[in-house]
């Protein structure tokens, strides 16, 4: 039985792992397609094309005869103004084509494929159902359009949407087994494991994926779900490693290893980066939510294709002249994270070398910055401002858009600049008291790449408010245990600073913006109200819509369904006694009546509906009765009218309930829905309960 269960849970992450590998390979090729094409095989990326060339030298490893830029291919020119302008135009045209295809596919075939998907996954795992959100069409279109939008050069990432893709895979496999398809609780456990698999393949961080599912996504996370998530993350990471999309035996493009320890004096700049991350997170959330609200409430929201095309055009026009915004964001992060070795050719590693240096490759001492480093610094400063602004307008458009990579890029750019500043300060002023104890002349004291990594963690933490899972993900990216303290310091600082301006992370803010009924586990409810204060109907309101167990006709029930929009109806013995029997879901009632009319003879509008075990003997001329005992939930969740609301809120959170019935001695008094709970909590927080809009 255990092996069978594992095989089912092992099958779920195989598909996300495979899809992640295919997406990585496709993005690599299509990103390079904007700049040129491989003559020997057009499906090769720039790097793959030059691997096969025998004429490529180490110094010019980015140039090879088999790879031609568009200017070389179309007008046979590689240098000069005309070649630059032609390459510029081709870059913009390819970006516009990719973005147009993506937004068109989403709009026509799968509207739910837009956005990150994490706010909706959190809402679904809390017990709310969004039909079609995890469907097959959403899976297919999100996978295809994710490749297109990342390749277009827009300021977004694929990591968040990969969680949505993995959950779609989990939902698909769940539907194949009745044990999961007919049990919402077990299905949600599978989705929690799928979310872990999604982060596992996104970052190459299996343990970080499990913790992300626990900390950020899942509502209820029992021990068996922890084990299943761990197993799913392991299989997904193994599948991606088998595909080896980057050709370097690593699961992500920006895996790095550092060789220099950090020193206590460096905690101050690390904490400063944490402050920057918290401020960036606050700025981003406020500006992005304001823009998204404007999009929802003005005519701007009626033209999603035009908005995507406009943002893509502006992004491509501004990004191309700067090498740090032209390259893909993953490659940018990889370059910023890298430690400058003897073989690095990046501008960021253009230091003035001592000709007498005879040290191992891994232990190059701090050196004065060269012209390339100073050029890179102002280019990075411009790229940082551009990324901050453009990401605010990009996240939330009607295309798949992740936030992890743009946030990490903002932090990595800020961190690298701070790291170079500290490095040069230590080199030129090694006799200062703060440097004297640990930075002697000729020593390798400061690693700017480590600052980039800490900055990336700080900014991602400021936006999402992740802490534990964030540190573990970043630790798994580097493979170094000794950098956990700097990462923890930055993550905690960014969360404290961001929380000082508002408790909501970006995902919670979008949940509220979209009007999803979501009870945040992190919110405390300490008021002394009772269930009777919240339940409906209240005094002066019409009585509760109920079904009786043996006195309503098919026509009565159809009329009730038509006149109301409730998800279900309590079933009572009679309207006089109001003694509760069970609860019937609206959808199951509609299906049962439809099937009975089609397949059972004698079922007409005045047929009596029975929820009892056996209907009584009927006169010979009476219409055929309709038995619906099988669709009745005989054990709906109930509380008494004197149950404290603190307990009710806790029950809704932990069980993912959508409604619970209020009784006294078995007699039905009313109903409490999740929306009623949310309105009551808003009222207790001195907010207008009617101002909370639900989608």
Automatic annotation (TrEMBL):
Entry keyword annotation includes Ion transport: yes
> What highest taxon heads this organism's lineage?
Eukaryota
Going by the UniProt record, its keywords in alphabetical order are:
Antiport, ATP-binding, CBS domain, Chloride, Endosome, Ion transport, Membrane, Nucleotide-binding, Repeat, Transmembrane, Transmembrane helix, Transport
Q: Where is the CBS domain?
A: 535-601, 632-690
- Please give the InterPro entries that the UniProt record associates with this protein: CBS_dom, CBS_dom_sf, Cl-channel_core, Cl_channel-4, ClC
Official protein name in the record: Chloride channel protein
Annotated source species: Microcebus murinus (Gray mouse lemur)
- The membrane-spanning stretches of this chain are 88-110, 130-150, 162-178, 190-214, 267-291, 303-320, 376-396, 403-422, 450-475
Recorded hits in Pfam families, A to Z, give: CBS, Voltage_CLC
SUPFAM superfamilies per UniProt: CBS-domain pair, Clc chloride channel
What broad taxonomic lineage does this protein's source fall under? Eukaryota, Metazoa, Chordata, Craniata, Vertebrata
Q: Which SMART domains match?
A: CBS
For this chain, the family text in UniProt reads:
Belongs to the chloride channel (TC 2.A.49) family.
Q: Which GO terms describe its molecular function?
A: antiporter activity; ATP binding; voltage-gated chloride channel activity
Location in the cell reads: Endosome membrane; Membrane
List GO terms (cellular component aspect): early endosome; endosome membrane; Golgi apparatus; plasma membrane; synaptic vesicle
Membrane topology note: Multi-pass membrane protein
State whether keyword Transmembrane applies: yes
């Amino acid at each position: 039985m255990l092996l069978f269960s594992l095989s089912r849970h092992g099958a779920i992450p195989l598909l996300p792992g495979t899809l992640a590998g295919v997406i990585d390979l496709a993005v690599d090729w299509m990103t390079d397609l904007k700049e040129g094409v491989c003559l020997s095989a057009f499906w090769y990326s720039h790097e793959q094309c030059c691997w096969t060339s025998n004429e490529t030298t180490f110094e010019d490893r980015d140039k090879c005869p088999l790879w031609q830029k568009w200017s070389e291919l179309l007008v046979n020119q590689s240098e000069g103004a005309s070649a630059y302008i032609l390459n510029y135009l081709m870059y913009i045209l390819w970006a516009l084509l990719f973005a147009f295809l993506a937004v068109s596919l989403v709009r026509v075939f799968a509207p739910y494929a837009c956005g990150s998907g994490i706010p909706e996954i959190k809402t679904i795992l809390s017990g709310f159902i969004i039909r079609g959100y995890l469907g097959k069409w959403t899976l297919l279109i999100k996978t295809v359009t994710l490749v297109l939008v990342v390749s277009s050069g827009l300021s977004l990432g694929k990591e968040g949407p990969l969680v949505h893709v993995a959950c779609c895979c989990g939902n698909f496999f769940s539907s194949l087994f009745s044990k999961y398809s007919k049990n919402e609780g077990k299905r949600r456990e599978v989705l929690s494991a799928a979310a872990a698999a999604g982060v596992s393949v996104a970052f190459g961080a299996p343990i970080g994926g499990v913790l992300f599912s626990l900390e950020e996504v899942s509502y209820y996370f029992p021990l068996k779900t922890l084990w299943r998530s761990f197993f799913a993350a392991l299989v997904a990471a193994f599948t991606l490693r088998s595909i080896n999309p980057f050709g370097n035996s690593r699961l992500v493009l920006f895996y790095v290893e550092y060789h220099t320890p950090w020193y206590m004096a460096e905690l101050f700049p690390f904490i400063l980066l944490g402050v920057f991350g918290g401020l960036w997170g606050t700025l981003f959330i406020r500006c992005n939510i304001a823009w998204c609200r404007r999009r929802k409430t003005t005519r701007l929201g009626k033209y999603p294709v035009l908005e995507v095309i406009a943002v893509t055009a502006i992004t491509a026009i501004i990004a191309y002249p700067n090498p740090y915004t032209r390259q893909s964001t993953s490659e940018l992060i990889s370059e910023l994270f890298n430690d400058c070795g003897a073989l690095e050719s990046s501008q960021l590693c253009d230091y003035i070398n001592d000709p007498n240096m005879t040290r191992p490759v891994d232990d190059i001492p701090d050196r004065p910055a060269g012209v390339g480093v100073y050029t890179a610094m102002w280019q990075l400063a411009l790229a940082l401002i551009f990324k901050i602004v453009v990401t605010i307008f990009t996240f939330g458009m009607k295309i798949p858009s992740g936030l992890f990579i743009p946030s990490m890029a903002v932090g990595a750019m800020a961190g690298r600049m701070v790291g170079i500043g500290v490095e040069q300060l230590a080199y030129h002023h090694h006799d200062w008291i703060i440097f004297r104890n640990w930075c002697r002349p000729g020593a390798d004291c400061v690693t700017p790449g480590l600052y980039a990594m800490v900055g990336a963690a700080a900014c991602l933490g400021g936006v999402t408010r992740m802490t534990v899972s964030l540190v573990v993900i970043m630790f798994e990216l580097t493979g170094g245990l000794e950098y956990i303290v700097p990462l923890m310091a930055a993550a905690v600082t960014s969360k404290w600073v961001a929380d000082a301006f508002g408790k909501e992370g970006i995902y919670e803010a979008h949940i509220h913006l979209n009007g999803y009924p979501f009870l945040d586990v992190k919110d405390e409810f300490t008021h002394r109200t009772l269930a009777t204060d919240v339940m409906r109907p209240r005094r002066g309101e019409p009585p509760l819509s109920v079904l009786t167990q043996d006195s309503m006709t098919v026509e009565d029930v159809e009329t009730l369904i038509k006149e109301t929009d409730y998800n279900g109806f309590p079933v009572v013995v009679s309207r006089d006694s109001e003694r509760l029997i069970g609860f019937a879901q609206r959808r199951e009632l509609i299906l049962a009546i439809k099937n009975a009319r089609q397949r059972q003879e004698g079922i007409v509008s005045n047929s009596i509906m029975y929820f009892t075990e056996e209907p009584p003997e009927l006169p010979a001329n009476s219409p055929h009765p309709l038995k619906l005992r099988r669709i009745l939930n005989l054990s709906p969740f109930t509380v008494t009218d004197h149950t404290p609301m603190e307990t009710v809120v806790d029950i809704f959170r932990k069980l993912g309930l959508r409604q619970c019935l209020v009784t006294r001695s078995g007699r039905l008094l009313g109903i409490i829905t999740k929306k009623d709970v949310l309105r009551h909590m808003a009222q207790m927080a001195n907010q207008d309960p009617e101002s909370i809009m639900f989608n």
